[in-house]
């Protein structure tokens, strides 16, 4: 016999919010049961509706704030209540980063059983128009007779109906309406499911995933749009290796600068780069400061990507070694070293999530280490490193839970000390926590 879904009460209910969850939802207790309520802040009295009933907890959505918190902010984006791209815009920006700091410290204590000797002051940059990387859904909706371009709706698989975005770089955030109109005019408007967006210092690259061939008229329309906007289109008719510029050539030319270190990084539209180009130079500076580099140091940069950290590090160290799992990124990192005239740096390909990475690690020269892994963390490679050689290890993380897990390994098994930890507001108005930790 199927139990089915639990019936949700139709009428709004009142609640007092006790605290804020890691992902930024208000937490209330209703009849002894925990309820996570979207759009609510600690200390507030609100009215909400249930969106889901579960066994151990329920979920809800705020429909009215009766007694607002002093920390509540008026969302700048008119699509905020519906679009799922942001989740913390109703919380004052200064409080957002403090909340993320509390999440990091709680995770370190709860998972690693460790607290940093020093909390590093949070890093912040612009809170608006900061996002330079995004994957946006595209869909033609018959009922609305329009093309939608944007992120998913909150708690939904549907694409939000938006015309602008306050967190996307203005090259894109202010032109979504025009982009929707352009796509609707193409013959393949029903066969475009996705746009991959990457904004360089000078131009926005937009990779169009299309499931049917473009006509000559389609290409002419795209070329005309390029002439009127700081945009360069790339086409993706099949897999990632099919991506090419609208002109048919495999172009690069996208770049960003790290002026303080006299480094230019060139990249391809689908390459991994930091989302926030204003914060990234501050992050690079912090990494270099924490590593406390001298001309005698050999630095190992694991998960190095395009060399975002490796290349500026090479300006101050005796040698920098970058290691990355993607052969394509390693090739581009080596090209970036040549572009910047750096000869004291080398790059190699290694599956850092594998159990045989230790075989290659014996050839790496290092007394200091930088880790910048994906969300899954760096446990496998940490357990294979010779940590007795490491004077300093800096860990940049996009997931405080896996950072905390790996911190436990470094402290308990590697006998390193957690000297400092802090957060960076890489993704303002979202619950995403970017953090950094120093081990010695």
Please provide a written account of the structure.
- The protein has 440 residues and is α/β, with parallel strands linked by helices.
- The chain is 22% helix and 28% strand.
- It has 10 helices and 22 strands.
- An 8-stranded mixed sheet has the order 7-21-22-20-19-16-17-18, with helices on both faces. A 6-stranded mixed sheet has the order 1-5-6-4-3-2, with no helix packed on it. A 6-stranded mixed sheet has the order 9-8-10-11-12-13, covered by helices on one side.
- Strand 12 and strand 13 form a beta hairpin.
- Helix 1 runs parallel beside helix 10.
- The longest helix has 20 residues.
- The chain is globular and about 65 Å long.
- The mean pLDDT is 94.
Brief descriptors of the model:
single chain, 440 residues, alpha/beta, eight-stranded mixed beta sheet, 22% helix
Topology:
Blueprint: E1 13-16, E2 19-20, E3 26-30, E4 33-38, E5 45-53, E6 57-67, H1 93-112, E7 118-119, E8 133-141, E9 146-150, H2 170-173, H3 176-184, E10 194-199, E11 204-209, H4 216-228, E12 231-236, E13 244-245, E14 254-258, E15 263-267, H5 280-291, E16 298-302, H6 310-314, E17 319-324, H7 327-339, E18 345-349, H8 357-361, E19 368-371, H9 379-382, E20 392-397, H10 400-412, E21 418-424, E22 434-439
Parallel strand pairs: 4-6, 7-21, 11-12, 16-17, 16-19, 17-18, 19-20
Antiparallel strand pairs: 1-5, 2-3, 3-4, 5-6, 8-9, 8-10, 10-11, 12-13, 14-15, 20-22, 21-22
Helix pairs in contact: 1-10
């Amino acid at each position: 016999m199927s139990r089915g879904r639990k019936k949700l009460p139709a009428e709004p209910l009142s609640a007092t919010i006790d605290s804020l969850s890691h992902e930024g939802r208000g937490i209330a207790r209703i009849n002894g049961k925990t309820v996570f309520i979207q759009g609510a802040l600690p200390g507030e009295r609100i009215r909400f509706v249930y969106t889901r009933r579960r066994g151990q907890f329920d979920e809800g959505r705020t429909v009215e704030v009766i007694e607002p918190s002093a920390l509540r902010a008026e969302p700048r984006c008119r699509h905020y209540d519906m679009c799922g791209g942001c989740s913390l815009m109703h919380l004052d920006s200064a409080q957002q980063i403090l909340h993320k700091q509390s999440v990091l410290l709680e995770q370190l204590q709860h998972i690693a059983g460790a607290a940093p000797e020093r909390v590093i002051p949070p890093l912040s940059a612009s809170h608006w128009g900061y996002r330079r990387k995004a994957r946006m859904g595209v869909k033609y909706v018959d009922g609305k007779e329009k093309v939608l371009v944007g992120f998913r709706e909150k708690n939904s698989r549907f694409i939000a109906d938006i015309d602008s975005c306050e967190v996307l770089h203005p090259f894109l955030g202010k032109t979504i309406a025009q982009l929707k109109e352009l796509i609707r005019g193409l013959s393949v408007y029903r066969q475009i499911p996705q746009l991959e967006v990457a904004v360089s210092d000078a131009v926005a690259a937009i990779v169009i995933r299309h499931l049917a061939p473009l006509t000559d008229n389609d290409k002419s329309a795209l070329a005309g749009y390029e002439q009127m906007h700081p945009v360069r289109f790339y086409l993706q008719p099949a897999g990632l290796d099919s991506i090419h510029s609208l002109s048919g050539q495999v172009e690069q030319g996208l770049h960003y600068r790290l002026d303080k270190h006299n480094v230019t990084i060139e990249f391809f539209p689908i390459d991994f780069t930091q989302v926030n180009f204003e914060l990234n130079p501050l992050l690079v500076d912090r990494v270099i400061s924490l590593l406390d580099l001298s001309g005698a140091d050999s630095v190992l940069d694991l998960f190095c990507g395009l060399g975002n950290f490796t290349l500026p590090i090479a300006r101050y160290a005796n040698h920098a070694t970058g290691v990355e799992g993607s052969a394509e990124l390693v090739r581009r990192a080596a090209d970036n070293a040549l572009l910047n005239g750096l000869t004291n740096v080398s790059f190699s390909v290694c599956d850092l999530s594998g159990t045989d990475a230790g075989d290659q690690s014996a050839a790496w020269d290092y007394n200091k280490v930088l880790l910048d892994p994906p969300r899954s963390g760096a446990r496998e490679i940490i357990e294979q490193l010779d940590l007795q050689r490491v004077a300093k290890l800096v860990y940049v993380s996009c997931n405080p839970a896996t950072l905390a897990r790996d911190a436990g390994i470094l402290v308990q098994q590697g006998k390193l000390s957690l000297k400092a930890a802090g957060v960076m507001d890489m993704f303002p108005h979202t619950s995403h926590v970017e953090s950094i930790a120093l081990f010695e």
